[in-house]
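User:
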Amino acid sequence: MNGIDRAELDETIAKTFKEVRTAIDTHSEKSLQMYSNALRALVELRQQVVSQERAAG
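Assistant: Predicted structure:
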């Protein structure tokens, strides 16, 4: 995954997780669903980045 900075991705994951927590605290079902989906996708992307880095050596 050329061009994806792992540190920036980690920061985005952390911010998105905070948004999930905020949605839980405010009982916002729509926000919770949106941020949960985004967090899931970001975590999957990070797994792909790590896998590709390991494969590249």
